[in-house]
Write a structure and sequence with these properties.
By secondary structure, the protein is mainly alpha-helical. It has a domain of 73 residues: Arc Repressor Mutant, subunit A. 69% of the residues lie in helices and 8% in strands. It contains 6 helices and 3 strands. A hairpin with a 5-residue loop joins strand 2 and strand 3. Helix 3 packs across helix 4. The longest helix is centred in the N-terminal third of the chain and has 28 residues. The protein is globular, with a radius of gyration of 19 Å.
């Protein structure tokens, strides 16, 4: 059991170091971490709703909404109604130019690190982490509802 606990701790430390590294990168390139998240999420060139970004990146909706408003004013993103309450965020040409200007060097270094480490097993690692998250989420659903004496 001790070995299992240590493996989980090592895994969580590695994940937290990666998260911290991305936070440091945001500071180095001169953008707020939440702006970094929104730009990174939109860097695939696909439309995303604010809800999708909040769910995927674990950022509060009010935070993403504030960054979205700022980027709309700056002309970096457009909001397109989807027919529901939600709107899809699209990166504009000027937003893409901004993204390219601040992220291109980072994206290249990120791609090189990926190529030299994760590329051969990326699908397996991503799937394993996703399954771990789902399993943990499911097992935690009743954690507050269980009696402490059971």
């Amino acid at each position: 059991m001790h070995s299992e606990r240590m493996k989980i701790l090592d895994f969580m430390i590695a994940i937290n170091k990666l998260d911290g590294l991305y936070y440091s990168i945001a500071k180095q390139i001169g953008v707020h971490e939440n702006e970094f998240v929104l730009l990174y999420a939109l860097s695939d060139g696909k439309p995303h709703t604010q809800r999708q970004i909040c769910d995927d990146w674990q950022v509060p909706r009010t935070t993403i909404n504030s960054v979205t408003k700022k980027f709309v004013k700056l002309g970096y993103i457009d909001l397109v109604p989807t027919g529901h309450k939600e709107k899809e965020l699209f990166i504009t040409e000027s937003g893409n130019a901004y993204l390219t200007a601040i992220f291109s060097d980072f994206f290249q270094k990120e791609a090189n690190a990926f190529k030299h480490t994760l590329e051969p097993c990326a699908d397996i690692v991503t799937d394993a982490i996703s399954q771990f998250v789902l399993s943990l989420e499911n097992s935690l659903k009743n954690i507050n509802g269980e009696s402490k004496h059971e």
